[in-house]
Amino acid sequence: MQLNGSEILVEVLVEQGVDTIFGYPGGAVLNIYDALYKNSDRIHHIITAHEQGASHAADGYARATGKTGVCLATSGPGATNLVTGIATAYMDSVPMVAITGNVGTSLIGKDSFQEVYIAGITMPITKHNFVVRDVTELADVLRDAFRIANTGRPGPVLVDIPKDVTAAVCEFHNKPVADTSERYDLKEDDLRAIAELINQAERPVIYYGGGVTIADAGDDMLAFMRRAQIPATGTMMAIGALPSDEPLNLGLVGMHGWVSSGRAVDEADVLITIGARFSDRVATNPSRFATRARIIHVDIDAAEINKNINIDYPVVSDAKTFLQAVMPYIKENRHPEWIAKIGDWRARLDYRPKDSETELKPHRIMDILVKATDDDTIMVTDVGQHQMWAMQYCKRNHPHQFISSGGLGTMGFGYGAAIGAQFACPDKRVIHITGDGSFHMNLNEVSTGVKYDLPIITVIMNNSVLGMVRQWQTMFYEKRYSSTTIERQTDYVKLAEAFGGHGFRCTTPAEFEAAMQQALKMHGPVLIDCVIDRDERVLPMIAAGATIDDVITN
Q1: 21-73 confidence digits (pLDDT tens)
Q2: Over 132-191, what HEC string results?
Q3: Beta bridge partner(s), residue 21
Q4: Among all residues, which ones are annotated catalytic?
Q5: DSSP letter string over 248-261?
Q6: What proportion of the chain, given as a percentage, has pLDDT over 70?
Q7: DSSP per-residue string spanning 290-337
Q8: Model confidence at 404: pLDDT above 90
Q9: pLDDT tens digits for 273-306?
Q10: Are 94 and 106 in contact, with CB atoms under 8 Å apart?
Q11: 3-class DSSP state for residue 230?
C-alpha cells in the first residue's frame, strides 16, 4: 500500500508492539503528529511539559516493563532537549528509540531555522543512530532501530527524519518483528572449570548487577545460590532481582552499601560477578578491590570484560544463559563458617540510624513508605541523598520495582520516569522519591501528571540544601559550603495546588504517616513536603579511592 513517511512511522511502531509514546510537537514533526492524530486509537501519545521529561518517561516506561520506550521531538532545541534522557538510558542499558524531526533535506547543512546535527551530537550516547534521507528506507531503518535497541546489551537508538521524508510517499509492507535473542558460545570445558572453582571455594560471593534484571534471571540466580549456599550482594541497578528477605541476599555493596557486604567481597576467595561492571561506585579503588579472590565475570558486553578490573574467568553471556548452562555442574554445598562470619559482620558492623518521634529521619520516611504501600509498588527516585536512602531502606522483592538513574546520576530524572512507569503499569502505585534540589530540575512535569490524572505521590526530602554535595563538603572540604545552601522559598503545598494537585507538609513521622494515608486515597498527583535536617548524612560511606577498610559509619 502507498503511504507517506509519517504513516509508515505509525505502521512500524504498531508493528513493533508500541502502544504509547512520549513527546512534544513542533514544526519539523507536524506531519508525524498529523498521522498520530489520525491513529490515536492505535497509539497513545503523551505530551509532556518538556522534551527531557518525554525522554525520561520513555526510559521509565522501559524500566518498568522491559519493553522499548519511545520518545518523539521536533528538530533543533526539541532534539537537543532529549540528549540528557538519551544519555541516562545509555548509561543504564535501557532500550529506547528516540525519534527526532529535522529540517528538509534541501536545508540540511545551511544553518536553517531549528537545525542541529543531532546524529553527531548523540553518537557517543547511543548504540546507533540513523539519518533517513529516503522514504523508501524509512521502514527498515525504524525496524533496525528497535532490533538494535533490544539486541545484546540494550540501549537507546536515535532516528532523525527530515520533514520532507515524513511527507514523501512510497510502497509499504508489514514485516515480522525481528528475533533479538542471541546465542552465546559457552564451551563445556570452560563451564566445568568455572564450576570446579565454585565448588571448591571456601568463601564464595556473588556480586550481581542490573544485567540480572535485564535478563530476567533472578529466579535462576536464587536457585544457584541456594544449591551452593553462596551469599550475594548487589548494586542499586539490581534492586528487586532477589527478594529483600532472602537470607543469602546481603543487600547493597559499594560506596553506600552495607559494611558486611563490603567485608564479604574483600575476604572472598571466589567472586562470581554476574551482570555488573565494577563501576567506580562499587570498585572505589580498583587496585585494592577483591584482591583475595579469583574473579569470574559474566557480562553480555565483551567490552566490559577487563575494563575496570582484571578478570580470571571471563564469560560473554547474558545472566540467564550462563546460570542455566553452569547449573548442572554446580554441586550441593554448604559454607557454615563463612555464612556465620558474614552474619557476625551484619550484626556488629552494619549501620543503624537512630529513630525519632519528634523529627523526620530519612530511614523512617522510607520505612513508612514501605509499610503504607503494597508489595508491587514501584519506587522511582531522582539523584542525591534521598536516592541513597531509598536504595538502602525501600526493600523491593520483585524486579522492575526500583527505578533510578545509576550511571549518569541525572537530577530531574524522577518525575518523568514516574510518568512513564505509571503509564506502563496503570494498576500499580508509583511513588516518586526526590530531594528539593532534584525536584526543582523538572518540577514542570507535575503539570503532565495533573493533565492525565496520574496518581503519582511525590515525597520531597526537603533539607534546603544540595545534600549529597554538601555532605562531601562537610567531610572533605572543611565545611566550605560553596553554592550548596540553596534555601529556596518554594511552598510545595501551594505549588501542588497551583498545578491542580494536592499537597502536604510534614515535620514528624506521625504527620508523614497521616499524609501518606490521605494521599493514597486521592486522585491525581500529590506532593508531600518532608522537612529533614540539612546535616543528615548517607552512611555508611566509602570515599572515592578508598576501600572497605576506610569505611565511614559515623
Answers
A1: 999 999 999 999 999 999 999 999 999 999 999 999 999 999 999 999 999 99
A2: CCCHHHHHHHHHHHHHHHHCCCCCEEEEEEEHHHHHCEEECCCCCCCCCCCCCCCCHHHH
A3: 45
A4: 51, 113-114, 163, 468
A5: TEEEE-STTS-HHH
A6: 100
A7: STTSEEEEEES-GGGTTTSS--SEEEES-HHHHHHHHGGGPPP---HH
A8: yes
A9: 999 999 999 999 999 999 999 999 999 999 999 9
A10: no
A11: coil
The β-bridge partners of 430 are 378
Domains observed in the chain: 2-171 (3.40.50.970), 188-349 (3.40.50.1220), 362-531 (3.40.50.970)
Length of the chain: 554
- Widest CA span in the chain: 73
pLDDT band at 352 (very low <50, low <70, confident <90, very high): confident
Q: What are phi and psi of 137, to 5 degrees?
A: -95, -10
Mean pLDDT computed over 1-10: 97
Tens of pLDDT, residues 535-551 = 999 999 999 999 999 99
Three-state secondary structure readout of 24-66: ECCHHHHHHHHHHHHCCCCCEEEECCCHHHHHHHHHHHHHHHC
C-alpha cell recorded at residue 64: 518498568
| 310, three cell numbers | 582484571
Residue with cell string 516493563: 65
Q: What DSSP element (H or E) covers 221?
A: helix 218-228
| 355 DSSP assignment | P
Pair 534, 470: CB distance under 8 Å: yes
Query: What backbone phi and psi angles, to 5 degrees, belong to 540?
Result: -70, 170
- Pull the grid cell for residue 173: 509492507
The grid coordinates of residue 480 equal: 566550605
Place of cell 496503570: 426
Tell me which long-range contacts 507-514 makes (C-beta under 8 A, separation of at least 24). 507/359, 507/360, 507/531, 508/357, 508/358, 508/359, 508/360, 509/356, 509/357, 509/360, 509/361, 509/364, 509/365, 509/368, 510/357, 512/360, 512/364, 512/365, 512/368, 513/368, 513/372
CB 228 within 8 A of CB 198: yes
